[in-house]
Hints:
The structure is a single chain. The chain is an all-alpha fold. The protein is about 70% helix and about 0% strand. It contains twelve helices and no strands. Helix 3 (about 80-135) packs parallel to helix 9 and helix 4 runs antiparallel to helix 6 (about 190-205). Mean pLDDT is about 80; it is low at about 1-40.
Amino acid sequence: MLRSLVGSEMCIxxxxxxxxxxxxxxxxxxxxxxxxxxxxxxxxxRAKLESINGRAFIQEHNNExxxxxxxxxxxxxxxxxxxAHSELWVRHLxxxxxxxxxxxxxxxxxxxxxxxxxxxxxTRISWVEDQLDNDGSIVHGWLVYMAxxxxxxxxxxxxxxPPFGVAHARSxxxxxxxxxxxxxxxxxxxxxxxxMCKMVGAVCSVGSxxxxxxEGPIIHLSGGLGRQVIKFLSGQFPLQFGHMTTTExxxxxxxxxxxxxxxxxxxxxxxxxxxxxxxxxxxFSLMHLHKTFIxxxxxxxxxxxxxxxxxxxxxxxxxxxxxxxxxxxxxxxPMFAFVGMLGGCFGAVFNKYVFTLCAWLSLIHI
Length: 366
């Protein structure tokens, strides 16, 4: 049976001061090797160690920040030097260029998915039409149609089942993505394998003619692409993009990537920005808003350019009728106002009962 370390607070402090090294696996964290032979530390000792570790990290971080600030200040005038202004401008340039690169990648992937499942659907329909035109046999056409569906469905199923696929590639992926962005860590949710399986599975599912759409999977894999893009840039070009490797930066690129997915899926860059602000981000800044707008606009223009000049198609699935008989009149406004008021009343009643139910559940748990 392991013996617990029993002693006063001074004993714990003495043992901490005798730590010979830091843990090689965790930066700025002291090792637990000092407790070898004494058992694992209890809750009080662990809290004390974490408190001292935190103070050591803060002191070292402050010293590093103070040294960087001293280099940026001109000793003669006491103002930021010209080199500091140039360095800050270059850093902002690389920061915003990373958002442009992310928008380019996500827009290209979204267009490839749209082009792929469109080609699969047209090929499937043309094969069925060929069977009907050759001998007029409805049975042969039905068999070809079902064979295409079964093959594409089998590929989609393999993408979510091990060992070939991963479970995170199923469904839309938006709820776990929002959970991950709001602090609930979901392991391997945005890994490269999940992104690839999601892409292949969505293309085959939509191309088979199932009652599903690519919008949800595009948003999920776009969030993963945003994170993987900044990881790739910071790893391949550490001098230019190495300053964007913190947890906050990864979270911002993930949420901006999800906004790019909305922009590319619905051809609506402002909707992507609003989705990022309202749904994908719990902590939002003005700079993040600018970066999200740049990336969503970039992904929109990539998809629009490729649709216009390469595939010569549009991602708008339904045509909109135009003309005098289809335009709204001024006397239609009260009707829209009534619908809005009705929706607001229903929403207020719904929220009231949801809050009441939550209060009852909290009392039951107590």
